[in-house]
Structures are given as structure tokens and as C-alpha cells.
């Protein structure tokens, strides 16, 4: 069934220029000039000369790598090349989404090759200068956050249901202690891993900042005998979460609040946030620390799970513009702005980077299986854009461009701490 | 047997003024003035009014806390009070060392009360300003480091043998998965915990930065079939370590190098450093990162174990002056200056704060048992100073003033990572 939203994925913002020169309107036989070929080579070199071939609209192939190409990027028209040159980070995604760029071969391998190539450029002084100049995360105001979250998370529960895990609809990194696990198993394993890190015990009052479709809150209430108050500013998600809690008879133990984390009230034994920090923005980390300080009991346990970076750096421009407006994955050092000013004590950090790549593989596989249905819901541009986003995210995690940090913390003076982390691995 | 060192613990630097007014030279009956009592109250309030009593030279007792005092600080003369007022962080230690201050009651509980009281002052703007102004760690040059390390670690192996674990003479935090463990058990447990974190396998080439008496290197070579090159700038420690390695038939697999970590050469599968970072100083973290980047193989595993802080802050002035010149325990955020510029990926952080308190309890107990022998080796001032240092360190760890971070890291692009941390807890 076709959704009636006017925009799919914000691609209504794609300029007419992107759509104008659709492949079939450009004569494929148009000759490529020496300048075109030079630009292609410059483009590849700017990406660190990855083992990737560029095929032009007339069939010519350009490559700057010695190694055999892992995949071929097909440029359907000259305009696509020119746009790509101007801002590859941003325009590759838009041009791919509208079909003016295609990929032949292994899409994830292609994106991994590009990420790796660009990683090798890191030592380059110009690249570092550009990183510094452009690494200015935007400020997420209360209203701005609502708009940004609506953009992504209110695409429709029926859409996310097609490719997330069926059990709890978790749109965050799963935990694969065994990589052969199913997505459903790994998402439940994640919830139990987090519960163990938080040393949940019956009667604990839990507050959750950014609860998605509420799966963690219901699982904690059902399996650990705690009560949960969960905050989220996505109205579609909260409506779904409340309905599920009612259906599962958990409405007396789980409360979903349609509000911003900054408005959290009350006192809690546990603060938990899985996959929200990416949307908070570094300028608000002090505020988040204040919220936690306000609401965490003296022996309270805290937990934050977030996409991150090995060093500060902006989100890919296209992802930030089209997929996740306002998103910013922090480095561990940047995350400390939440904890250090309030003397919270970081007890445990675990990096689950490869677990997110594995989660995304499962998501992409289900997404592709349902691509026809999703195209009917939205349009072909949407399907292509999301394919790129999911494949690109796999590549970002496998190449180390993105990390996944789980941080356990407590108040600085709290001595009610376990003597080891053996409880995290009960079957080990 | 009396040691012939001219200084014991640098206390030769204690000014004559500290010694002049030794308790028995001051008439105990000298009246205390209203000013004296006011100064005492001001001193206690500046420490956050801990549940501590001050007893003056004439027997009068002053306290500003409502709670019953956990212990009493005895000021033997008026001059001691005046010196204490001028710079309590620095002079408390010196005055206690020379006996112009005494403590009656539980020494550790007293120091914990003071740490807690000062922790409560943290919100105070003046205190924070003072922290900022005085938090300028000194620069450790190659020659300066050698002098600083000599000051502490070359006090004589026979001294350390009296209170460290007998198995490996480890002067770093042990690991107590069960707090009932003996010091010997917990120190071996630490080495195995670190070995598991590093996923040691036979044939691995290990480099160790700052190896103490070489216990880790020998244990790794003996139990894990690796070869270790271990760097240390303390000549007494290196001589001891070499002798032990020869005695244990490990000389072909363990090499001790009397040199600075900055001069590490070669390529290694494993970089490990336990208890050296405290002596490196933040201005050298970039250099340390460069050393690791230079010597770590592409799939190399890295590990740093260090005393730290929940937020940046200087070492206690007396400890830094008398016990550990040049020492600086970093916050996690500060530690990131080692990793982030080189895109090392932090995989795991574990905070073992309470394990260090437990380790120190064992050390202090053995130290007290051998206090007579140690006084014969040095002098009574030395024994008092070290009692204060060990007890104060227990209090710093139990109150959260100090942390103990173990950080596992790898190169950013390395995907040869375990799928869980279950291997760290084989008996769990």
C-alpha cells in the first residue's frame, strides 16, 4: 500500500538537477573527453585510489588502483560525474538514489574499499584540515530534535517491521556472542547483556532515554521484574510501544512518555539509553550529564550505548542530510563530557563495532527481501537510498570508520560494585 | 641493616622548620588562643567539615561536624597548625612524617572522611578555580623521568620485598575476582586477566613499557609461550629482573632493556604497559601513541593499565612531591590523547578501583608487620611517610578520588577481534 507522506526520506529535497539527466535521457554513446577521464582519476585518487573501477556513460572504464576492482561504479551521464566531483560525500548518495549512478558487483565491498582508501589518506594534512573545518556538529534544540527524529523514526512502523527483528523491533546494534545467531536471538542477547551490565534486580526503577519501539523497556519489565519509564519524542514509536505494552499486560510496569530526555523527572535506580546519544549532539552532553545527575539514585547504575568514532569526526554528509539529520557519533573522549564534569565513574566500556556490521547484514538481507513491498510503500528512490545507507553502514563498521560503544557508569563515590565482570557471561 | 642512602624518600628535603618544633620541645600546656581555635575550624571547613576531631597541643578538641569523629588528628604544636593552614595538601604529610601531627583512631577511615569531605566541596566555584589553576602537570623529559623513577623505585629491592607479593614483586593493582584472595593469588590473577585481554598465543612477540621487577614479562613467557622485551629506566629493578629471569631459565625468552619507553624499537604483536602511564605525564601521551603506532603489528593487541581519575585533577601535592615526583593520573578523556590522534580503537575499558584499595590493604598490612625492619633500613620518618602514603592511597581509591583503568585497544582497521569477552572469565 502506497504511503501518503509527501516526502520519502527527505528525497523531496533532492534538487531537480539530480533528476533531470536521468540515464535514459543521456545518449550513452556520448564521447568522454580527456577532461572527463582526468576528473575520474582525480576523484579516485581523492578517495585514496581504492580497488574500484569507474565506468562512464559511453562504456569507458577508468581505475587508478593496481589491484583488481572489487566492484564498478557506473556513471550514467557526464553531469553525474561533475556533481560527484563537487561534493562526493553528499552527491554520491543522491545520484545513486535517483539512478544516475549504479553499482555493479558487491555493493558492501565497494563501500568498504572506499572507506579504507579514505582511511589511508588520514595522514594527509589537507584532509585533516578539511576535517577540522567541517567538523562542526549542529546544535539540537528541543524543537529541532523533534523534527530530526520525526524525519527518520516516523517513516511508519509497518516499514520498520519489514526488516527489524520481530520480537522487539530494535533499531540498534544487536549482540552476537556467536556470530551464527539469528537477528532475533542477537537482539534478545543484547537486551540481556545490557540488563546484566546494569545488574537489574526486581523492583528497580529504570528510566530509559530514547526508547525506540519500547522493546528494551518491555523486556526489562517482563524478564527482570523492574518498572520502566521510557522517554521518546517519536510519536509513532510511542503509540506502538504503548499498544504492545497493553497487549502484553505490562502497562502497569512500563510507562512510555512522549517527551524529550531533557525533561526527565523523578529518581531512578537505573539510567539506560540505547542508541539515543547519536542524536543528542556534543553541545548537549553537559545537559545530558545534568539530567543523569538529577535523576540517578546514590547507588544508581548508568548505561549508554552509542555509535561512536575512534577520533572526532562528522557523520557522512549524505547520511546526515538525508537519513539522520542532526546525528553525530562521538569519540570516547567526546563522550567524557557527559561523565567527567559530574565525576561519574566509568566502570566498563565495550566496543561492539563488528556486532553492528553483523546486525546491519541481517537488516539489509531482510530489506532486500522486502524491497518490492517497500517500493510500493514509498518509491524506487527510497529503496535505493536505504540500500546505500544500510550497505554503507556495514562498510563503516567493518572498516572501523564507526564504532559501537557500550559504557557502564556509576556515581564516583558508589562502592556497591561487582568484583568482576564474570556475571556478564553466565554460560561462559 | 641501615641503608646508606643519604635521603630516605626525599625527606632530606623536609625543611628544618618541620623538624624544629618536635612535639617534646613544645610545652603541651601552652594555651590555645581564640585565633587558634578559629583557624582549626576554618581548616576543617575547608576540608568539607569531615567527621574528624582536631586535638590541640594543650588537649583542647575542635570539630565542625555533627557526626561523631571517626578519628582524631593531634596537633603537637602551634607551628604545625600554622603550617597546615598554609598548605594542608602538602604539609599534612610532612608534619605527620616528622611526628608533629599524629592520628588516633582508624587512619584509613580518617583519610577517607577527609577525601569525602573534599569531594563534597567539588561544586564550590572557588575550589574548581583553584583546581584549574593548579592542574598543570609537569613535563617529564628523558633525564627528568630517570631522576623521578630513581627517587621511588630505586629505594632498594629488599625494601619492596618486605611488603609486595613474593611471587612476582608486582607494585601495581592486583585483580581480586574474589576479595578473599591472598595478595599472591590476586597478583597472579591480574597477570592472567591481562594475558586473556591480550589474547596471548605462543610465539607472540610482546613489548612491555615500564616493567617493574619484570614479573609480568616472566609470567607471560613462562605460562603463555611468548617472548617479551621489557623496558624500564630503574636500574635496580632491571638488575633484579634479569637475575630472576636467569634463575628461572627464561633468559632466552625475556629481555630486559634499561631504557625509556620513548626508545622502544622493533615490531611486536602485543604492546603492554602496567602502571607506567602514571609517570608519563599528559604532555607525552602523543609521543607514547607514536611509539605504539611505530611498534605495533597490523593485528597487534594493545593494553594500558593506569591509575586514573573521574575528571582531570592533579596528584595530591605531598604524594607528588615526596613519593611520586612527576606522577599524574589521567582521566579517561585525557588518556584518549594516546589513542585518538592515531585512530587506535579502544575495545575494552575496565575500572578496577576497589581492587587497588584491596591490594593496598594487603600491602599496608605487610608493611606494618615489617615496620621495625623498615625503620632499621631507613628511619622513623620514612616509616610514617610510607604509612601515610599507603593508607592515603587506600582512602583515595575507596572514596573514588582515584580510579584504576585497564584499556584494551587495537588498530582501527583490525577486524581480528573476539566476538565476546567471555574468554576473560573461563571459570565463570
Overall description:
The first copy, chain A, is α/β, with parallel strands linked by helices and 428 residues long. Chain A has two domains: 127 residues, Nonspecific Lipid-transfer Protein, Chain A (2-Layer Sandwich), CATH 3.30.1050; 248 residues, Rossmann fold (3-Layer(aba) Sandwich), CATH 3.40.50. The first copy, chain A, is 43% helix and 16% strand. In chain A, strand 5, helix 10 and strand 6 form a beta-alpha-beta unit. The N terminus of chain A is likely disordered. At the A-B interface, helix 14, strand 10 and helix 15 of A face helix 14, strand 10 and helix 15 of B. Strand 10 of chain A pairs antiparallel with strand 10 of chain B.
Amino acid at each position: 500500500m502506497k504511503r501518503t507522506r509527501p516526502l520519502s526520506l527527505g528525497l523531496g529535497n533532492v534538487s531537480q538537477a539530480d533528476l533531470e539527466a536521468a540515464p535514459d535521457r543521456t545518449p550513452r554513446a556520448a564521447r568522454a573527453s580527456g577532461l572527463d577521464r582526468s576528473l575520474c582519476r582525480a576523484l579516485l585518487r581523492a578517495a585514496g585510489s581504492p580497488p574500484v573501477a569507474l565506468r562512464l556513460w559511453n562504456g569507458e572504464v577508468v581505475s587508478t588502483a593496481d589491484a583488481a576492482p572489487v566492484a564498478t561504479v557506473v556513471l550514467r551521464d557526464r553531469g553525474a560525474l561533475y556533481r560527484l566531483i563537487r561534493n562526493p560525500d553528499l552527491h554520491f548518495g543522491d545520484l545513486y538514489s535517483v539512478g544516475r549512478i549504479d553499482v555493479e558487483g558487491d555493493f558492501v565491498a565497494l563501500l568498504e574499499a572506499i572507506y579504507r582508501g579514505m582511511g589511508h589518506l588520514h595522514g594527509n594534512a589537507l584532509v585533516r584540515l578539511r576535517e577540522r573545518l567541517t567538523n562542526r556538529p549542529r546544535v539540537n534544540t528541543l524543537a529541532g530534535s523533534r523534527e530530526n527524529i520525526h524525519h527518520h523514526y516516523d517513516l511508519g512502523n509497518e516499514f520498520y517491521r519489514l526488516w527489524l527483528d520481530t520480537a522487539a523491533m530494535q533499531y540498534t546494534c544487536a549482540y552476537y556472542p556467536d556470530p551464527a545467531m539469528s537477528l532475533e536471538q542477537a537482539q534478545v542477547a543484547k537486551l540481556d547483556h545490557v540488563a546484566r551490565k546494569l545488574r537489574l534486580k526486581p523492583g528497580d526503577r529504570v528510566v530509559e532515554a530514547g526508547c525506540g519501539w519500547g522493546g528494551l523497556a518491555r523486556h526489562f519489565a517482563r524478564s527482570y521484574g523492574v518498572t520502566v519509564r521510557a522517554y521518546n519524542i517519536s510519536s509513532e514509536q510511542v503509540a506502538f510501544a504503548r499498544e504492545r505494552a497493553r497487549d502484553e499486560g505490562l502497562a502497569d510496569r512500563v510507562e512510555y512518555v512522549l517527551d524529550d530526555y531533557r525533561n526527565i523527572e523523578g529518581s531512578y535506580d537505573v539510567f539506560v539509553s540505547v542508541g539515543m546519544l547519536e542524536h543528542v549532539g556534543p553541545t548537549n552532553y553537559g545537559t545530558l550529564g545534568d539530567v543523569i545527575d538529577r535523576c540517578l539514585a546514590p547507588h544508581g547504575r548508568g548505561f549508554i550505548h552509542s555509535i561512536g568514532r575512534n577520533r572526532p569526526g562528522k557523520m557522512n554528509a549524505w547520511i546526515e542530510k538525508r537519513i539522520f539529520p542532526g546525528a553525530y557519533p562521538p569519540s570516547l573522549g567526546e563522550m567524557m563530557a557527559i561523565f567527567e564534569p559530574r565525576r561519574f565513574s566509568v566502570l566498563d566500556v565495550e566496543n561492539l563495532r563488528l556486532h553492528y556490521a553483523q546486525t546491519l547484514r541481517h537488516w539489509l538481507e531482510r530489506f532486500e527481501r522486502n524491497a518490492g513491498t517497500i517500493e510500493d510503500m514509498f518509491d524506487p528512490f527510497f529503496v535505493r537510498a536505504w540500500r546505500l545507507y544500510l550497505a554503507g553502514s556495514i562498510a563503516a563498521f567493518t572498516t572501523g570508520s564507526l564504532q559501537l560503544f557500550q559504557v557502564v557508569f556509576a556515581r564516583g563515590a558508589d562502592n556497591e560494585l561487582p568484583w568482576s565482570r564474570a556475571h556478564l557471561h553466565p554460560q561462559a
